[in-house]
């Protein structure tokens, strides 16, 4: 559906205020799931929620099920390729196209608040300021290793927002190094991570092949190849390993998927690698595994997957970096390993298998702590509070709508 079309789905009874949420995609990875939780919290409060996304995807059905309305419309999504000289012409073209699209959506929806999900859609805070709409930006990205100038440019448009939420202290510190003024206005809201209601403990003993699970994007920065390499090292010690990779590549990264298949084909006979593809529900895979590995090579703003492993009653091996350390570092059933070292992953997997009974006994306690820290209900309520705080008071909502209508 184009930006010029009417939004297609009715959201039922409303409380008299409207939130327009802008998001850069429609998949079901980390930030997509957080957008879904934010929308759920707003809908629980009776708000009308309209979500603008640039493409179709599985997230849309989830949003519609919550009672949100969805508009598919072009927008500028900042990718690294657009910041290189070879991408500047496309950057300019998508900027003008995205500005027009966002302007028309805002004019049609007439929101009381704009919720900007992620920093990769920089035009929305600009449109909100030009149209006099209060805005809240939610930062789900942080690369401390990136150029300070690049980070500053990414964060700069969000100075125009009335509120700024960040998903970890690491993200906040990364913003502070690039744009202290924005960091000073930001507030940390830990991700709400949903887990299975009644997960089963893993098998009593890891007999036969050790079952290892990777969940997430298949990309070089996420490091799924490190899991295969670690499995091959274990096979060299006579330990059989079954690796399952749940996830898929970004469009344009099919070459990396091919490399992973080639790598898997070259592993010893004691290693089995299953490519499960993208799965909207990962819990059956978690239930079937012994250990989850989160091996990212590059900074991560947070570690939803690590928390999901804990919630699923599974030990997890995590790269000792950035937001992953913050997400998993304090659980007794999470082990941090040096970045980009498959030998460290294999050593930890072997150690976990060898102390299986002790590890298994700690899993329930780790899950209880994760439930306390990352309850989706608490996340929804906190995000909703910040969005409501940015909105005109409930008594002013109707008058504000009239004023905006008169300007149009």
Instruction: Please give the CATH architecture of the largest domain.
Output: 3-Layer(aba) Sandwich
Number of helices: 17
Strand order of the largest sheet: 3-2-1-4-5-6-7
Oligomer: single chain
Number of self-contained structural domains: 2
Percentage of residues in helical conformation = 40-55%
Overall geometry: globular
CATH topology of the largest domain: Rossmann fold
List low-confidence stretches: 1-14, 397-408
Helix and strand run:
EHEHEHHEHEHEHHEEHEHEHEHEHEHHHH
Structural class call reads alpha/beta
Task: Jot down its keywords.
seven-stranded parallel sheet; transferase; D-inositol 3-phosphate glycosyltransferase; globular; 13 strands; disordered C terminus; Rossmann fold; 15% strand; disordered N terminus; alpha/beta
Q: Can you give a write-up of this model?
A:
The chain folds into 2 domains: 18-192 and 376-403, 3-Layer(aba) Sandwich (Rossmann fold), CATH 3.40.50.2000; 210-373, 3-Layer(aba) Sandwich (Rossmann fold). The longest helix is centred in the N-terminal third of the chain and has 22 residues, at 88-109. The protein has helices spanning 30-44, 58-65, 80-83, 88-109, 123-131, 148-155, 169-178, 180-185, 224-236, 254-265, 283-287, 304-311, 322-328, 342-354, 356-373, 376-390, 394-407; strands spanning 18-22, 48-53, 69-72, 113-117, 135-139, 163-166, 186-188, 210-215, 241-246, 271-277, 291-294, 316-319, 334-337. The protein contains 17 helices and 13 strands. Helix 1 (30-44) crosses helix 16 (376-390). It is α/β, with parallel strands linked by helices. The model is unreliable at 1-14 and 397-408 (pLDDT under 50). Strand 11 (291-294), helix 12 and strand 12 (316-319) form a beta-alpha-beta unit. The protein starts with 17 loop residues before the first strand and ends with a helix. The strands form 2 sheets. Strands 3-2-1-4-5-6-7 form a 7-stranded parallel beta sheet, sandwiched between helices. Strands 10-9-8-11-12-13 form a 6-stranded parallel beta sheet, sandwiched between helices. GO terms for molecular function: transferase activity. Residues 30-193 form the Glycosyltransferase subfamily 4-like N-terminal domain.
């Amino acid at each position: 559906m184009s930006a010029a079309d009417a939004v297609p789905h009715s959201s039922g009874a409303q409380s008299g205020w409207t939130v327009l949420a802008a998001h850069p995609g429609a998949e079901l990875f980390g930030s997509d799931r957080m957008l879904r939780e934010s929308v759920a919290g707003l809908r629980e409060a009776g708000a009308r929620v309209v979500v603008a996304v640039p493409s179709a995807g599985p997230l849309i059905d989830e949003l519609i099920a919550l009672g949100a309305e969805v508009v598919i419309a072009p927008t500028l999504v900042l990718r690294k390729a657009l910041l290189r000289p070879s991408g500047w012409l496309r950057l300019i073209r998508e900027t003008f196209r995205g500005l027009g699209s966002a302007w028309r959506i805002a004019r049609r929806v007439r929101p009381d608040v704009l919720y900007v999900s992620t920093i990769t859609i920089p035009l929305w805070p600009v449109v909100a300021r030009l149209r006099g709409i209060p805005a809240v930006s939610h930062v789900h990205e942080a690369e401390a290793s990136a150029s300070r100038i690049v980070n500053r440019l990414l964060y700069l448009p969000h100075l125009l927002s009335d509120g700024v939420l960040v998903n970890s202290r690491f993200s906040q510190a990364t913003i502070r190094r690039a744009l202290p003024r924005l960091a000073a206005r930001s507030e940390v809201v830990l991700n709400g991570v949903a887990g299975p209601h009644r997960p089963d403990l893993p098998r009593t003993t890891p007999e036969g092949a050790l079952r290892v699970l990777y969940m997430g994007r298949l990309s070089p920065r996420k490091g799924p190849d490190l899991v295969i390499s670690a499995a091959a090292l274990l096979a060299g010690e006579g330990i059989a390993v079954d690796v399952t990779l749940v996830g898929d590549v970004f469009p344009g990264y099919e070459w990396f998927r091919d490399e992973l298949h080639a790598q898997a084909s070259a592993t010893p006979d004691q290693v089995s690698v299953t490519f499960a593809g993208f799965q909207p529900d990962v819990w059956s895979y978690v239930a079937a595994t012994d250990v989850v590995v989160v091996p990212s090579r590059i900074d991560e703003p947070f570690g939803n997957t690590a928390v999901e492993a804990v919630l699923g009653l599974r030990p997890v091996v995590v790269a000792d970096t950035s937001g992953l350390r913050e997400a998993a570092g304090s659980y007794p059933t999470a082990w941090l390993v040096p970045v980009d070292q498959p030998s460290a992953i294999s050593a930890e997997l072997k150690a976990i298998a060898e102390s299986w009974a002790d590890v298994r006994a700690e899993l329930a306690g780790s899950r209880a702590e994760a439930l306390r820290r990352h309850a989706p209900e608490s996340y929804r309520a906190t995000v909703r509070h910040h969005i409501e705080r940015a909105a005109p008071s409930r008594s002013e909502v109707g008058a504000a709508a009239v004023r905006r209508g008169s300007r149009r």
